[in-house]
Amino acid sequence: MRPVIIMTQPDKHDEGLSRLGVQLDDFDAKRARKVKAYGEAEGASEGYRLMALLIGGVIGGLGLGWLVDRVAHTSPFGLIGGLLIGTAASVYMIVRSASRASDSVPPGPAAAPALDDDDNGG
User: Fold this and answer.
1) Which has more pLDDT, 86 or 31?
2) What integer pLDDT is reported at residue 85 of this predicted model?
3) Which of 94, 100, 24 is nearest to 57 (CA)?
4) What stretch of H or E contains 65?
5) How many CB atoms lie within 10 A of CB 74?
6) Which residue has the higher pLDDT, 7 or 45?
7) In 3-state terms, the chain is what percent helix, strand and coil (to 5)?
8) Which of 36, 37, 48, 80 is at 20 to 30 A from 66, Cα to Cα?
9) Looking at residue 100, what is its pLDDT?
């Protein structure tokens, strides 16, 4: 006796799953490019760099203010002025650096795929 082979029609769910698989592959490819472009630890390293700018500006301003106090004998005005100038300079550098970093990030979330008649849940 010969074996009977039953051919089934492709199901609508199989087509939907294959389209979903294609969309998922596209999403993974876009995400991989974004991770490659910006790096996974890019945010943490940028934060540490900004913190170093802040601390360095304050300490540098204090050092220069102390030096002015030692040379001009204007204690504590040189130290206070150096602290204010160093803080202002470091805040300026942080804002400038952060605005440059935000300009390099693509704006907003990705657009949602268009819905087909089959995707309305009914």
Assistant:
1) 86
2) 96
3) 94
4) helix 42-72
5) 14
6) 45
7) 75, 0, 25
8) 48
9) 83
Domains in the chain, number: 1
- Give pLDDT tens digits for 75-122: 899 999 999 999 999 999 999 988 887 776 666 666 666 666 665 554
Residue 1 lies in a domain: no
Task: Please count the CA atoms within 13 angstroms of the CA of 73 that sit on its side-chain side.
Answer: 0
CA–CA separation, 53 vs 88, rounded Å? 11
How far apart CA 112 and CA 115 sit, in angstroms, is: 9
Residue 71, in any domain of the structure: yes
Determine the structural domain holding residue 98 and report its residue range.
55-102
**Does any domain span residue 48?**
no
Angle at 91 between CA 87 and CA 95, to 5 degrees: 175
Integer Cα distance of 28 and 18 in angstroms: 15
Token pair, residue 5, equals 């082979």
In a domain, 49, yes or no: no
